[in-house]
Amino acid sequence: MKMTIRNSALMAVTVAALGGCAGGNMGTAQQAAYDRDTADVMARSFRAQGIATLDRLQQDPLMATCSAPDRHLGDEQAEQIQAAAMAGIKWPSDGNFLGDWKEGEKLAQSGKGLTWKDKADGANGGNCYNCHRISKTEISYGTIGPSLYQYGKLHGNTEKTQKYVWAKIWNPNATMACSNMPRFGHSGILDEKQIRHIVALLLDPKSPVNAE
Ligand code: HEC
Is residue 53 within 8 Å of 76, Cβ to Cβ? Predict the structure, then answer.
């Protein structure tokens, strides 16, 4: 039975995991054969449906580098990856980093979007709780990423922090070369207005993130 591609983040993890299985000390030719087999299995296992088309199986250069089974990322290469990601970030067009934390909380809760059932022009969620603890009151959250509870209190709602969080949401690889967090701005998952709401969720002193 063929699976439908549901979501780009999931795909990235799947591709990385399958590539990773072929790891270990092996010759280049053997590795190339494994890579071809993996690509072949992936191509045969999925079909396109709706907006979930097969281009999601293609790794961009950053994903390929980060999921290479023999990855040895030196400081220099990590810095190059981060600098390239940083250079691609679109900063807020009006210079304003902060939106409405209440809208940010809704986005953090919502994992909606990008499935074959969704429309290309539909708004996506941010799915932040899937990987992060964010507020004290929401007890259902994942732990793939660090806790963000009290983020603004701990880091301060300064221009520097606003820029850091904006960059993290736009493209987490700008500050951590092979981050496993989705590239929300870079990949067109969230738009500028939504990212403002998310930054406010983490930094606005009135947000539940910064409540005691
Ligand atoms: C698939 C899991 C995943 C999702 C979904 C996710 N993150 Fe992350 N996030 C991570 C991981 C892993 C890290 C640590 C690596 C890094 O810093 O890039 C991280 C790091 C961060 C950091 C940096 C923390 C620090 O102290 O430097 C922030 C801020 C953040 N995430 C915010 C968010 C927000 C807001 C959302 C929702 C829009 C979100 N994340 C969605 C996995 C995720």
Answer: no
pTM: 0.87
What pLDDT, in 10s, does the model give residues 107-160?
999 999 999 999 998 899 999 999 999 999 999 999 999 999 999 999 999 999
Q: Does ligand 1 lie within 6 Å of residue 66's CB atom?
A: no
Domain boundary at 51, 72, 93, which?
72
User: Measured in angstroms, how far is the CA atom of residue 27 from the centroid of ligand 1?
Assistant: 35
Amino acid in position 205? P
Test site for ligand 1: of 82, 109, 181, most ligand atoms within 8 A of the Cβ: 181
pLDDT for residue 8 is more than 80:
no
Question: 184 in ligand 1 pocket by Cβ < 6 Å?
Answer: yes
The pLDDT, as a whole number, for residue 24 is 53
CB atoms < 10 A from the CB of 28, how many? Answer: 8
* In a domain? residue 81: no
Structure-token pair, residue 208: 């539940």
Judge whether 22 and 31 are in contact, CB under 8 Å.
yes
CB of 130 within 6 A of ligand 1: the answer is yes
Q: What is the domain range of residue 185?
A: 101-210
**How many Å lie between the centroid of ligand 1 and the Cα of residue 126?**
10
Question: Across the strands, what pairs with 3?
Answer: 46
